[in-house]
Design brief:
The complex is a heterodimer of chains A (about 350) and B (about 280). In chain A, strands 6-7-8-3-9-10 form a six-stranded mixed beta sheet, sandwiched between helices. In chain A, strands 13-12-11-14-20 form a five-stranded antiparallel beta sheet. Chain A is an alpha+beta fold and about 350 residues long. The relative contact order of chain A is 0.12. Chain A has two domains: about 5-235, Rossmann fold (3-Layer(aba) Sandwich); about 240-355, Nucleic acid-binding proteins (OB fold (Dihydrolipoamide Acetyltransferase, E2P)). Chain A has ten helices and 20 strands. Chain B is mainly alpha-helical and about 280 residues long. Chain B has two domains: about 15-45; about 45-275, MetI-like (MetI-like fold), CATH 1.10.3720. Chain B has twelve helices and no strands. In chain B, helix 6 (about 110-125) packs across helix 7 and helix 8 packs across helix 9 (about 180-210). The longest helix of chain B is centred in the N-terminal third of the chain and has 34 residues, at about 60-90. Chain B starts with a helix and ends in a 6-residue tail after the last helix. The chains are: A alpha+beta (about 350), B mainly alpha (about 280). The interface of A and B includes residues 49, 88 and 101 of A. Chain B: Its main location: membrane. Chain B: Belongs to the binding-protein-dependent transport system permease family. CysTW subfamily. Chain B: The complex is composed of two ATP-binding proteins (CysA), two transmembrane proteins (CysT and CysW) and a solute-binding protein (CysP).
């Protein structure tokens, strides 16, 4: 089902949680609402579910205005961060709940409910846990019950509020993969809230980056990661190094240090260049004034990528670089060495839109 | 035996198991078991036939029925209205909420005789409230139920309130998003979650009502066979220096209360089972 969010605003007292939000979501998309806490992402999700009212604007499901429709009638499945399972019911009864509370006319027969619940429990790999109570399950298992429970009512939209937030790293990864698989099988329009950029980049087809109640950027994971349209998005989607300086005739200068930025031809004082850690090149010798001296503070060497923390020698700033292990071995550098670093790729944001 | 004790010592992280258990046993023995055993001990000075005659006396039997019946009725009333009060105090904000919250505890603090006199005055046939009713309230079992409801109210409110507070709104939202009506959410989700607390509140209020004397004697009218509660029979026997007879009746009360509370505890255990790991 497609969703249109039109000019939605919502305030809690004096706090403006959402400011004039508009997005179109197509049927079958898997969307991540990404943002720091307090950015309004959970509020937006709850408004979609009808659990929260809105001050202005409208929500359309398949072109129909459902702004004033109760959560009960919206046909959405909602998965809570802390599962919100019914503790006094078995896993089976939890999953069957949505079917059992239907009015008699639309309620499936007992056998149908039975079959459906068994199928769903098989889908979430909890077939053997039907008679357990939530208290007897692990966090990951509970979240899977919550998912099965939401899916039992065959929702047209699946909304997940930080679904993996309370789980440990390994279970999280597993459930992420599982959610994507599930989405590929069912094609139900799904929106999940997260503050974990890796999760968003990994799972979603499209990411909506939110900050301060506004949408910063909407795009595919590649688009938002490779072409962030604001310093905020750049900073929020992964680690970043800042190079402050002056922009003049396609060069960013900072003292002796100069970086070529041929795409920026206008002149500005005080701009900030953004460089991802893996876009920083490390050399042992200075070639020209396009590189700058820095001292290695810490080397973190787990996995195929070596993370190096550096302190610049000209200004009091720290940098972070990531280089492949082989390259690191070839360089033969160690803690305390002075090396020369050069940004390979740099994105410049001009004054009026940098806010960090 | 020694081995198992040693084993337990090794396995537990929480210190002081033997000490605290020993203290618990000693404390319970002195405070609860010793006085109660005196009741039985005193009763043993009677012969079986004397004992049976005392406890099976029609006046005594009528009083058992009255005491347990009214305590049960008051407990049920308190469960319904106590839960509603707890609900209101937790869920809604209104001016004077703290005062209402404080009012709930008043039956705890008020001397029961004062409560009894006040209630008797209000509900007597020409009292402020009693005059509006065609039937008698004070000096009937109805009056006893009112007095017992009054003194039992805080138990239910104060046991349900914290549980309701911790319940949170998420499970209600989950229920609503799964298509349940408000009534279904209340009946199938909220009430079962509250049930263990409600049962505890009920058993506390019930136990308190069984032994209540002060507030009841004023409103009951104390007519033998009709509105005479068991604690009053015990008092009357004591006043006539019939200590053995008094303890015999007390034994019946004690055993019956113990069995009832044990039953409630079993139900409690059964409903609680789901909420804990095995």
């Amino acid at each position: 089902m497609s969703i249109q969010i039109q000019n939605v605003s919502r305030a809690f007292g004096t706090f403006q949680a959402l400011k004039d939000i508009s997005i179109d979501i197509e049927s079958g998309e898997l969307i991540a609402l990404l943002g720091p806490s307090g950015s309004g992402k959970t509020t937006l999700l709850r408004i979609l579910a009808g659990l929260e009212g809105l001050d202005e604007g409208a929500i359309l499901f398949d072109g129909q205005n459902i702004t004033n429709v109760s959560p009960k009638e919206r046909g959405v499945g909602f998965v809570f961060q802390h599962y919100a399972l019914f503790r006094h019911m078995t896993v089976f009864d939890n999953v069957a709940y949505g079917l059992k509370v239907r009015p008699r006319k639309t309620r499936p027969s007992k056998d149908e409910i039975n079959k459906k619940v068994r199928d769903l429990l098989a889908l979430v790999k909890l077939d053997n846990f039907a008679d357990r109570y939530p208290a007897q399950l692990s966090g990951g298992q509970r979240q899977r019950v919550a998912l099965a429970r939401a899916l039992a009512v065959e929702p047209k939209v699946l909304l997940l509020d930080e679904p993996f937030g309370a789980l440990d790293a390994k279970v999280r990864k597993e459930l992420r993969r599982w959610l994507r698989k599930l989405h590929n099988e069912f094609h139900v329009t799904s929106i999940f809230v997260t503050h974990d950029q890796e999760e968003a980049l990994d799972v979603a087809n499209r990411i909506i980056v939110m900050n301060n109640g506004k949408i910063e950027q909407v795009g595919t994971p590649e688009e938002v990661y490779e072409h962030p349209n604001s310093p905020f998005v750049y900073d929020f989607l992964g680690n970043v190094n800042l190079f402050r300086g002056r922009l003049h005739k396609g060069k960013l200068t900072q003292g002796q240090f100069e970086i070529d930025v041929p795409t920026y031809l206008d002149s500005h004082y005080e701009v900030v260049g953004y460089v991802r850690p893996h876009d920083i090149q490390i050399e042992k010798n200075q070639l020209n004034n396009e590189s700058v001296a820095a001292k290695i503070v810490h080397i973190h060497m787990v996995g195929p990528v070596v993370q190096i923390e550096l302190k610049r020698e000209d200004v009091d700033e720290y940098l972070e670089a990531e280089i492949p292990k082989e390259h690191y071995k070839k360089l033969g550098i160690k803690n305390g060495d002075t090396v020369f670093i050069k940004p390979k790729q740099l994105k410049v944001f001009v004054p009026e839109d940098f806010s960090i | 035996m020694e081995l198992t004790l040693k084993k337990r010592k090794k396995n537990t992280i929480i210190p002081g198991f033997t000490m605290t258990l020993g203290y618990t046993m000693l404390y319970l023995s002195i405070i609860v078991l010793l006085p109660l055993s005196m009741v039985f001990f005193n009763t043993f000075s009677m012969s079986w036939s004397e004992f049976w005659q005392t406890i099976a006396h029609p006046r005594a039997v009528a009083s058992y029925k009255l005491s347990f019946g009214t305590a049960l009725a008051a407990g049920v009333i308190n469960v319904i209205f106590g839960t509603i009060i707890a609900w209101v105090l937790v869920r809604y904000q209104f001016p004077g909420k703290r005062i209402v919250d404080g009012l709930v505890d008043l039956p705890f603090a008020l001397p029961t005789a004062v409560a009894g006199i006040a209630l008797a005055t209000l509900y007597s046939p020409n009292g402020w409230v009693g005059q509006f009713f065609d039937f008698k309230i004070a000096f009937t079992p109805l009056g006893i139920i009112i007095a017992l409801t009054f003194i039992g109210l805080p138990f239910v409110v104060r046991t349900v309130q914290p549980v309701l507070q911790n319940l949170g709104s998420e499970i209600e939202e989950a229920s609503a998003s799964l298509g349940a009506t408000r009534l279904q959410t209340f009946a199938k989700v909220i009430i079962p979650e509250l049930l263990p607390a409600i049962i505890t509140g009920f058993s506390l209020a019930f136990a308190r009502s069984l032994g209540e004397y002060g507030s009841v004697v004023f409103i009951a009218g104390n007519m033998p066979m009709k509105t005479e509660i068991t604690p009053l029979i015990i008092m009357t026997k004591l006043e006539q220096y019939d200590y053995v007879g008094a303890t015999a009746i007390a034994t019946v009360m004690l055993v019956a209360s113990f069995i009832l509370l044990l039953l409630i505890n079993i139900i409690q255990w059964y409903t609680n089972r789901k909420f804990s790991l095995q």
